[in-house]
């Protein structure tokens, strides 16, 4: 029903406006008595065989929602009713910011893809914390970044502020230095500044009563040499794992009229490359750390391919928009069927 009826209607309208409309609709429906139970019955699979223990946390299933969809932690409770095993919020910054000028979100329907140049638009970490205080059992990842006007030399302070503010309210952290939409942010992926940033956060982490897993989200555009650097950095800093991958700046093979728009590309064009990065990291590190696989997952087969390449968990974003919430259930069914 989603692909035949709902999606064609939604895709007539501006994608950013549709996003906010969909948020309001999901929130409204979940406030109607009984509707949250209906969503759960439609999309949730409760089966112990789907549970995963990764970096010390128990996930009820391996399918999560990637950062960027619920930036400000406004809808994580309702989204969890659609069958996700975990929800990643953010990217959050210390101060609220508008992000880049609109129009900044583009559908590439012929390519089953999206280009965004949102620019870490969010209300600031403290606003999200207030909403997270009301969490009722949803496993939450906190994706953190720096403000646009913060120079790279002072970026570590921004990440520390977000880490301290979110520490009591998220289950794991994701350090985002790989978005192409904040000026010079990707320069923080270089070995020296990235090692320093992650080590600072780990030093802060070990002073806490209970350490929280810290993960690094990387770009799909890294070379093999840079990916080997990532493996070394994980070993040196002892962070918990890697999320592979963020959006790409590549435009290879695109057909859509919007293919020349600036920003990060997500969706089907990223399927193969993100899987290659997962497999490279898994094999070259000898499976030394967990990987969350994300990028171009539009079918159960895409998800299984990521898992077989070495991912411990996966996340959806663009595939969720194009395929609808039934994708979560179909992936979990496929994971169960693979066990037979």
Automatic annotation (TrEMBL):
Annotated catalytic residues: 179 (nucleophile)
Compartments, as annotated in UniProt: Cell membrane; Membrane
GO biological process, one term: 'de novo' pyrimidine nucleobase biosynthetic process
Source species, domain of life: Bacteria
Residues that, per the record, bind substrate: 71, 116-120, 176, 181, 246-247
UniProt subunit comment: Monomer.
Name of the protein: Dihydroorotate dehydrogenase (quinone)
EC number from the UniProt entry: 1.3.5.2
Protein's organism: Flavobacterium amnicola
Keywords: Cell membrane, Flavoprotein, FMN, Membrane, Oxidoreductase, Pyrimidine biosynthesis
Matches recorded under CDD domains: DHOD_2_like
GO molecular function, one term: dihydroorotate dehydrogenase (quinone) activity
InterPro entries: Aldolase_TIM, DHO_dehydrogenase, Dihydroorotate_DH_1_2, Dihydroorotate_DH_2, Dihydroorotate_DH_cat, Dihydroorotate_DH_CS
Catalytic activity, as annotated: (S)-dihydroorotate + a quinone = orotate + a quinol
GO cellular component: cytoplasm; plasma membrane
Gene: pyrD
Topology of this chain in the membrane: Peripheral membrane protein
Keyword Chloroplast: no
Family per record: Belongs to the dihydroorotate dehydrogenase family. Type 2 subfamily.
Function: Catalyzes the conversion of dihydroorotate to orotate with quinone as electron acceptor.
